[in-house]
Amino acid sequence: MKKLLCILLSLLLVLSIAACGGTSTGGGDDDDDSLKTSKTDKDDKDGKGTESGEVTGEYYDTGNFKALVPEGWKAFPQHDVFSDDPNEMNPNRLTISKGGEDDWDLFTKPNVQISYGGASTTLMATDESWYEDVEALDTVVSGDHTWTGFKGTSLGYKYIFLYEDTGKIQYQISIMYETNNGSISLDDADVKAILASIEPTNPDDLAAIAEAKPEDPATTDEPGTTEEPGTTDEPGTTDVPVTTSNDYDWWKGEWYGWWCVTDGTGVFENLNDIAWDAYAEINVYYDGTGIITLWDTETSRSSALVNCRLTFEPGTDAHGKMVSDTGSFFDSGSWLTNWEINAAPIAARDWVVDAGASTVSHFDDMIEIAGKYVDPYYSTESFTYHIYLRPWGTTWDDVKEGDTSGCLYRDMMPLYYDTWYLPLLEKGVTTMPDSFTDGKTILS
Fold first, then answer.
1. What value, to the nearest 5°, has the Cα angle with vertex 61 and ends 55 and 64?
2. What is the DSSP secondary structure assignment for residue 375, as one 8-state letter?
């Protein structure tokens, strides 16, 4: 009964998210063509990736742009993490998942994420240097769009990144194209249809496009006058991207530390004040988003304890804040030698990690992540978790010998710091092992 109740509540949550995210894909006035089953059957003008055949589906309108959601796919609007309203959606972001049913499927099933840059948001092409196994792509044409991009791998996920700048509007596409639960490609009719269907719906942006003239700097190719994202409007000035004082790249990389359980109830009560070494990899993207993968001595990089999408925002110091968007705790489904535990969601703003304002901020480059796990089926089984991390390669002598009076414990050191971490550093290991066992193998 508890499990059924949780499933029903989860379904209601998904429905409420869809209802708040702009124009729904499944309701509305029958006279509104944008809400009816739609087709994309444009001619293949040049044989280079435009539509061939017919794809049916429904359009989803975020408020700033719309895109086709083919049959068998689902639209996932993204929370606006900068809004005071927890139900407000980001009108510049939409993920369309093939076969996806809930937010967790965004980590395991192929999807197309669309980011929109108009009057309110400026985008730039994704930096190839942030990814592994990079492969350049030929120009991709889909409908009225012409994309440039590349393939790349990050945290084991395989992506295609596409970018288009029309002068007034920018689009950035992130396609997770290969997972254990399926794959998609740029040759798929559904993918082509999605890419071809994207168009602005923001009235201000539509007005700006309509008012653009051929001689405008944004629509000509004359040297020194092309307006790029983040440049000034003065003719002949050098194009310089907008920068901020926030050093979000500081978060990027591999981290080592520990985590512990407090306030455990139910089956977790006997784990109170027990700690495990922790390992994390954080990726930071150009648009102020990212992903964290975190594992411990009982899990591994590929079968992680935590996977969570992130956003970053200004904070107490220049490093800013790392904020949860959507993810899960106990992502691998097992822990402590295959002890089966239900994965619980990490929701938007469950974490607000301010690098400059925590109980450990007086130690250089140390962060604290705190949150609560509640079994999604049995609410009486829960615990509070505290995660402490520092960049891989950092020594902890200042923590061992320093003032920990305001911290959770007097002893704030990882359990295997002296017997696992330091020996690996002494052997010159600069890349964190994929598991605690792999580290022991290196030392043996």
1. 130
2. -
Q: Which backbone phi and psi does 40 adopt, to 5 degrees?
A: -125, 115
Q: For residue 231, with 0-12 CB atoms within 10 Å meaning exposed, 13-18 middle and 19 or more buried, which class applies?
A: middle
Q: How far is CA 180 from the centre of its chain?
A: 19
Q: How many CB atoms lie within 10 A of CB 91?
A: 22
Tell me, yes or no, if the pTM score tops 0.70: no
Give the Cα separation of 399 and 362 in Å (integer). 10
| Nearest Cα residue to 302 out of 388, 179, 419, 420 | 179
Span 388-415, pLDDT tens digits = 999 999 999 999 999 999 999 999 999 9
Token pair listed for 62: 């975020």
How many whole angstroms separate alpha carbon 46 and alpha carbon 27?
Answer: 36
Identify which of 305, 95, 61, 325 has the alpha carbon closest to the alpha carbon of residue 201: 61
Strand partners, 291: 283, 309
Helices then strands, each counted (H, E), the chain? 6, 24
Answer yes or no: are the C-beta atoms of 189 and 53 closer than 8 Å: yes
State whether residue 389 is helix, strand or coil. strand
**What's the CA gap between 431 and 133, in Å, rounded?**
17
Confidence of residue 80 (pLDDT cuts 50, 70, 90): low
201 close to 64: Cβ distance less than 8 angstroms:
yes
**Rg of the chain's alpha carbons, rounded to an integer?**
24
Query: Which helix (H) or strand (E) segment is 173 a member of?
Result: strand 170-179
Structural contact between residues 327 and 343, judged by C-beta atoms closer than 8 angstroms: no
pLDDT tens column, 35-72 = 223 333 333 333 333 333 478 899 999 989 999 999 99
Interatomic CA distance for residues 140 and 163, integer angstroms: 10
CA angle (385 as vertex; 301, 375 as ends), nearest 5: 85
Are 322 and 251 spatial neighbours (Cβ–Cβ below 8 Å)? yes
Tokens of 206: 């539509």
* Nearest of 334, 348, 331, 340 to residue 280 by alpha carbon: 331
Nearest alpha carbon to residue 370 among 384, 382, 357, 359: 384
Q: What pLDDT digit, counting tens, does each position of 352-367 carry?
A: 999 999 999 999 999 9
